[in-house]
Amino acid sequence: MSYAEPLSPVPTEKPNAPEDWLQAFMDVRAGTELLCSPLETEDYVIQSMDDVSPPKWHLAHVTWFFETFLLKPFLRGYLPLDEAYDHLFNSYYETHGSPFPRPRRGLLSRPTVAEVYRYRHYVDEAMGVLMHNTPSEHSHAIAERVCLGIHHEQQHQELLAMDIKHILAQNPLRPFYSKRLQVPPTRHPVPMRWRAYEGGLVSIGLEQGNESFGFDNERPAHSQYLEPFELATRPVTNQEYMRFIELGGYQDPALWLSDGWHLIRENGWTAPLYWIREGERWYHFTLSGWLPVDPDAPVCHVSFYEADAFARWAGERLPTEAEWEQAATHTRNRTGNFAESGYLQPVAAEAGATNNLSDLLLQMFGDVWEWTGSAYRPYPGFRVLSGSLGEYNGKFMSGQMVLRGGCCATPASHIRPTYRNFFPPSARWAFSGFRLAREATR
Fold first, then answer.
1. pLDDT surpasses 50 at 46
2. What is the phi/psi pair of residue 313, to 5°?
3. Residue 144: which domain range?
4. Could you read off the pLDDT of 395-431 as tens digits, one per residue?
5. DSSP code of 234?
6. Strands 281-286 and 289-292
7. Rounded mean pLDDT of the chain?
8. Whole-angstrom distance, CA of residue 28 vs CA of residue 8
């Protein structure tokens, strides 16, 4: 069973009016709380590292987002439940106010978990009033922000799964998140094949006039020239990564970028995050507890440096984000293992899917975010949103690498071929894996 009951999918088209999104708003808000329902009170307040936020903070921050960018500017007579929340739950909007320091979020024992849930329901009620009584002169702006806020909360649903996993993994009692998650299927290995692309001049990003939702960093569409290339038909698996480990991949500096080599030596990395070896067998921590590593599932919780080192070891490379998007845009297989599947971990590809030789790409969407070889930079002609919302994506376009495709904790309605996720190259707690690419000159 999934972590969430079946909910109405979030519309992919931009709304004409806020009330058109009311059901989606209610469903997303309920889905976030259902995701947290297996937690004990003590689980809500832990911050296991600087990049992880306590679940309680996530619940409050997404609520702060609706309050700050919709209720305060547009709902006449709105009174905040607590003025202090504007400081405590502001993430990084410096133009709006003074954010509470991220590394210290775990020190906030107050407000209590119960008070945070009261805050959520208080804001939900006010949002219902606003969406049923939208001032006509602001209807378009409100609709746009409701849409953005819903997709923002979906982002935090994925972050919640990532952060809860990291929090529980620190506990020597080896706790599990939920016994209600689906048991991953046992499948036959799927051989890695290669699909060739001619390259040429292609369009990347969301086209002008496309009414589908997209974040500002996905626009504008622009032309880019691609050399002919080939893309692996599935991500690299745990079995293949085990081979890399066994043959000394973590001991060979020739395979690693300088920063990556320093990082693995300094931190003692010898395997993906959450992996331990007991005897001859590898185990990993999952949201269902400690389990044997499935050799045929996509490798997960590796940094960009590890993905890049493996690609060098294999004699290949990582795809650019433009190559990845070009392939993903033209594949007909856009289904995948998303949050709704109920596994909340990557699963092995289905061998039967390879019978369709006209479309060999597997697991492009869902299972693991796929590292690309592209730095997170603005597209030509990129412009940030006006006001504080301009801090949403643009301010992070330095020192990050792009990932594509979504993962096992991503809501299915949240992903699309143009979606650009980004993390520092050292990040491993995300559900991140990779597939290989190479020039089509062989």
1. yes
2. -60, -40
3. 18-169
4. 888 999 999 999 999 999 999 999 999 999 999 999 9
5. S
6. antiparallel
7. 92
8. 9
Please choose, from the candidates 318, 342, 309, the residue with its C-alpha nearest in 3D space to the C-alpha of residue 405.
318
Same-domain pairing of 322 and 252: yes
How many angstroms separate the CA atoms of 61 and 78, rounded? 18
Alpha helices in 330-363 (DSSP H): none
The tally of domains found in the chain comes to 2
| pLDDT-based confidence at residue 442 (cuts at 50, 70, 90) | low
The closest of 133, 140, 123, 151 to 66, measured between CA atoms, is: 123
Q: What would the two tokens of residue 92 be? A: 């990084």
Question: Do 272 and 421 share a structural domain?
Answer: yes
Amino acid identity of 28? V
Where residue 26 falls (left for φ over 0; alpha for ψ -120 to 50; beta otherwise) is alpha
Residues 217, 145 share a domain: no
Same-domain check for residues 107 and 238: no
4 in a domain, yes or no?
no
Q: Is 38 exposed, middle or buried (0-12, 13-18, 19+ CB in 10 A)?
A: middle
Amino acid in the structure at residue 414? H
Q: Check residue 9 and give its pLDDT.
A: 55
Pull the structure tokens for residue 168: 């529980």
Residue 70 maps to a domain? yes
Residues 335 and 238 in one domain: yes
Contact 327, 197 (CB under 8 A): yes
CATH code, 433: 3.90.1580.10
pLDDT confidence tier of residue 329, bands split at 50, 70 and 90 = very high
Give the full edge-to-edge strand order of the sheet including 275-278.
275-278, 281-286, 289-292
Question: Which runs of E-coded beta strand occur in 217-339?
Answer: 222-226, 229-232, 275-278, 281-286, 289-292
pLDDT band at residue 212 using 50, 70 and 90 as cut-offs: confident
Please give the average per-residue pLDDT across 27-46, as a whole number: 97
Q: Give yes or no for a contact between 97 and 87, defined as CB atoms under 8 angstroms apart.
A: yes
406 contacts 415 by C-beta, under 8 angstroms: yes
Backbone phi and psi for residue 75, each to the nearest 5 degrees, phi listed first: -100, 105
Tell me if the pTM is above 0.85.
yes
